[in-house]
Amino acid sequence: MSWVLACVGFMFLVLCKANGNTYYYDFVLTESNFTRLCETKTILTANGTLPGPTITVRKGDTAFVNVHNQGSYGLTIHWHGVKQPRNPWYDGPENVTQCPIQAGSNFTYEIIFSTEEGTLWWHAHSDWSRATVYGAIIILPALNTTYPFATPDGEETLVLGSWYKGGVNEIIQNALSTGGDPNVSDAFTINGEPGHLYKCSNATTYRWVVDYGKTYLLRLVNAVLNEEQFFGIANHNLTVVAQDAAYIKPITTSYLMITPGQTMDILVVANQSPSHYDIASTPFVDGDVAYNNSTTTAILQYNGSTTPSTIPRAILPDFDDGTAASNFTTQVRALASKDHPISVPLNITHTLFISVSVNERICPNSSCDGPDGNALAASLNNISFVTPSTDILQAYSRAIYGVYSANFPHRPYIFNFTGHVRNDTIYPYFGTKVRMIKYGEEVEIIYQGTNMIAAENHPMHLHGFSFYLVGTGSGNFDPNQAPKTYNLVDPPEVNTIGVPKNGWATVRFKADNPGVWFMHCHLERHASWGMATVLIVTNGNTTETSMRPAPAYMPPCT
């Protein structure tokens, strides 16, 4: 496969070495004018494109990305799903592992690829900047290896996104100051374009051109801010072969459900009558919350075909069809083959039971715009995460007192999580609490959804690890019965999972990556309200089991 990159306007260089190649990129963050939905606005982008540049490597390679911030405010970049072994310094969440790259300065990230193979993505990890600063990461098989399926004839990457007419950071800051829900997006996008169903968007609808009879590997990324998505292609089956850069047993389906943060690799055979076909993505929302109920589209266009009078439409489930969502997600199983083995922890030494909730923050004189005149908040184990002004990794590595406390509880205050919720459970504690985990421990996390304020599916993401999703269920987790349903044979190895509405999900992983790792809901409004915490995996007894030394330069905290 050619190593030619399609993104123009940024430096790309490769150096070869015995244990993988090293690549160099430059991302220049600038304010650029974009016209969507009949209006022109200025947005922050990487190298002037939306989505930004694609990083392409092979399994086991390393990439250095020099981020030049020519915007008007500080921000950071996160390499979503990249484990970064022993290397939390370059993981990216703002004031968790680093402070922002200030406007007018630059910072070079070292991205170490290890076991990942497939599709991941990168995005800004400050406020809501990821609405426009994001792009795909393609991790090809290592040299002298191949896919666990026939090599496709071609590839395509589609990134689902959100478009706001207003300034995204102003929208969330206004919501946080008033205590109400942030405005919903004005459109969804596919590769930066809303598609023909929106105003002033027909001519710019994204087109994927294919040849009849060929098989394509579609790399799909959900970079939408606040809605999970159904996705499909009219008259074409999708064969999903990987999720979050790990292979799964093939699933052939007419639609899929993908949460914000997730990625999927999909085989698509161009076997229909040569014509134009609708590619569509619509929201999946199973909670009583505000959301964007619109559809973004692109066109699957057969080479040499003419535009039909009517383009076949993709048929997708209704926006609130939880059964359809579950019917897809429960099919996902790890490939678990000789060439792509898995290693599910069986001797659990560290258990966390975490309640996942939307809450309220009391406002004086009921002066806020949320429920009961209060402000909306969110929590894990009834603790709403407060982002510190000094990054936690620096505080941990330098033993700086007062930045965080190491007492995030292993279980919440117990109540009927999915039943009637009493008022004494609605108001969380606000603080920067982390959980300490010893190197080498085998960890089980049980995420328990709750019926507080607005129950819905929560896409939970853990930095620094992929974990095995060993079980899900509805209602309150039953410690006597639920473990009997666990799949310990071929659970999917992923980095983002959906915790079912008023249900639970159990994941397992081995704490073999020392460092400071953020864990949060990937619905941006929930993360902004505090649905997050930090796991600190302590150093082992050797250099190889300890964090790498701090880089000579990190962006200063101001």
From TrEMBL:
Gene Ontology MF terms in the entry: copper ion binding; hydroquinone:oxygen oxidoreductase activity
Top-rank EC class of the record's enzyme: oxidoreductase
One of the protein's GO biological processes: lignin catabolic process
Plastocyanin-like domain segment(s): 30-141, 157-305, 415-540
Function according to Swiss-Prot or TrEMBL: Lignin degradation and detoxification of lignin-derived products.
Cellular compartment(s): Secreted, Extracellular space, Apoplast
Pfam families linked to this entry: Cu-oxidase, Cu-oxidase_2, Cu-oxidase_3
EC nos: 1.10.3.2
Residues spanning the signal sequence: 1-18
Swiss-Prot/TrEMBL catalytic activity: 4 hydroquinone + O2 = 4 benzosemiquinone + 2 H2O
Chief location category: secreted
Secreted listed as a keyword: yes
Keywords, alphabetical: Apoplast, Copper, Glycoprotein, Lignin degradation, Metal-binding, Oxidoreductase, Repeat, Secreted, Signal
Natural source organism: Prunus dulcis (Almond)
Details of cofactor binding: Binds 4 Cu cations per monomer.
Entry protein name: Laccase
CDD domains recorded: CuRO_1_LCC_plant (cd13849), CuRO_2_LCC_plant (cd13875), CuRO_3_LCC_plant (cd13897)
Family: Belongs to the multicopper oxidase family.
